[in-house]
Structures are given as structure tokens and as C-alpha cells.
């Protein structure tokens, strides 16, 4: 049996090296240099080519190298014999927390304005907000969102969060359902989206929802580009209902050169780096799942295809 690494827009080399070191007896192949498609039963995947999996007749497990699986489902048909597993790693949650913390604090302490003032050699103090004055709403209280909520609440922010099922997180007001979404958005100064992309969550960052935030609210989107209605964001920035946005994910990645977000003074862009899967820790999980598969023991982090995330 062999493992194939099928990546687009991600360097497979460190992953191949880590798996070869941790599974020396297993043949690790990197797509498109696959010697024998019949021998591959386990694929490690990030945004693989369209319909690629149909070329592997004995495929049994697809392990996403990311927390999400929309990049797999977008381009592939998976039959019922194939288990789809996602990445759950504490390091992802910690990295995401650090990213949003920087985004929040630089917004509260007005660092963007000071960057501009510095360029103009302008000495101009402006008011700032302190942590205890700020109400944060988090969409998605899963592995990553729940951790981010917990840490932000421990810092002293007022934190609310929304998920499909009811949660119980220390010092976090947890909501679910349609009414819960309104409660999460209402009176919120900073909205952080950490939802997965599904039919139900597509376009959730739209005018109707974002208008419920406080006047001058700030948006951080680390979920998926498909969550955000881009023209609605531009309109809400123009009308000053929103004061700015930090965006890490986009409908088209890399973000096209002529996209208006690049030059918008109230939008900050990072290139989908909020939480990058860590090769050292994630390869341990992959090895565990491969061993489980060999021993026919239950796989870890199998995606519930009914939920779609
Ligand atoms: P999880 O599956 O653990 O959590 C998803 C959360 O979203 C759960 O709380 C779930 O509710 C909630 N949810 C899903 N659908 C709905 C819905 N229709 N209504 C309300 N709540 C909903 O995922 P992770 O926390 O591991 O990751 C979340 C997402 O973060 C990923 O799918 C990915 O898109 C993004 N991500 C981005 C990264 C980046 O670098 N920008 C890095 C890693 C992840 P419930 O708990 O009830 O199931
Ligand atoms: C992920 C991501 O899903 O990086 O892990 O977006």
C-alpha cells in the first residue's frame, strides 16, 4: 500500500519528507509522479485537481491537510467507500488565536492610521479602545472558534459566539439557531468569522447580517471567501457602518491583481495564512490515521458528510 500526496498551491516536499521519516516502510508518492495508481489507498490532499480521485481505483481514505474539506468536495466525487478526514490540531487553534489577536489589537489601538500618519510625518494622537470596552462576536464555535473564544474571553473581552449546536464555554455567551445569530451580531464591535463553507453558511457575511453589528464595527474573516458578499462589504465601508475589515480568505485565491480589495484603505489583506497547518504536529495525526486504517481501527476526525463540514 502507498500514500499519495496530492496538493495544489502547497509545497508537498516537507510533507513527503516528514511522512517518509515517520513511516519508513510505506511508499510515499507525490502527484503527478504516481507510479501505480492501483496501489494508492490513502491520499493526503489540499485542493487536488478536478476529478483526480476517480483515477485511484483502490482509494479508501482522503485526509485533508487542512481543517476544512470544502477544497476537497469542490472538485471531487467521493463514493461511500471513501472516508474523508479533516485536520484537527491544537497548533491550528493556537495560531488562529494569535492571528486574530494581532488583528483586533492593531484595530483597537489604531495602528493602521498611525502607519499612514508616520508616512506623512504627522504627530496626531487619536482615541483608542481598551479590551474591557469591546464586544466580540464569533461565528463558528468548533475546534478553532471555541478555542479563540475561550482565549479572548480570558483576556477580558466580552465574547459571544454562534454555532449549530449549543455550546458551553467559560465566560462566553453561546448561542445557536436563527435567533442566536441575531444575538451574536447585535451590539457587537468586532465580528470574527470562523465558520466552515457549506450551503448553509455561504454569503452569511451580507448586508442584512452585518448591519446588525454596532456602528463602526470591524470584520475579521478567516473562514472562507464564499462567506462574504464582497459588494455588501464595500457598501458598508462606504456608508461607514463598518470601520474596516481584515480578510485572510477570498472567493478567488490568490486574490486577482485587479481586485478592489487590494487598494481599499479600510481593508487589510493577508494571503490565507491565519493558521497554516504545521508539518511536524499534523504529520503525527496523519501517521496515526494511516496506522488506524491499516489496523482497521476507527479513523480520527472523519467528516460527517450530512453536515458537510
Ligand atoms: P469545526 O468543524 O470544528 O467547527 C465548525 C463550527 O461552525 C462548529 O461550531 C459548527 O457548529 C459551526 N457551524 C457549521 N455550520 C453552521 C451553521 N449552518 N450554523 C451555525 N454554525 C455552524 O471547524 P474548525 O473550527 O476546525 O474550522 C473552521 C473553519 O475555519 C474551517 O472550515 C476553515 O474554513 C477555517 N480555517 C481557516 C484557516 C485560515 O488559515 N484562514 C485555517 C484553519 C481553518 P457545531 O459545533 O454545532 O457543529
Ligand atoms: C484550513 C485552512 O482549512 O488553512 O486549514 O484554511
How would you describe the overall organization of this protein?
With 309 residues, this protein is α/β, with parallel strands linked by helices. It folds into 2 domains: 2-89 and 277-295, 3-Layer(aba) Sandwich (Rossmann fold), CATH 3.40.50.720; 90-269, 3-Layer(aba) Sandwich (Rossmann fold). The chain is built from 9 helices and 12 strands. The chain has helices at 13-22, 70-73, 90-108, 111-119, 143-155, 177-185, 207-210, 230-238, 279-295; strands at 2-7, 27-30, 40-46, 61-64, 83-85, 135-139, 158-163, 172-176, 190-193, 217-221, 242-247, 267-269. The chain has a 7-stranded parallel β-sheet, sandwiched between helices. Strands 2-1-3-4-5 form a 5-stranded parallel β-sheet, covered by helices on one side. Helix 1 (13-22) packs across helix 9 and helix 3 (90-108) packs across helix 5 (143-155). It is elongated, with a radius of gyration of 21 Å. The two termini are 28 Å apart. The mean pLDDT is 97. The site of oxalic acid has 4 residues, from loops.
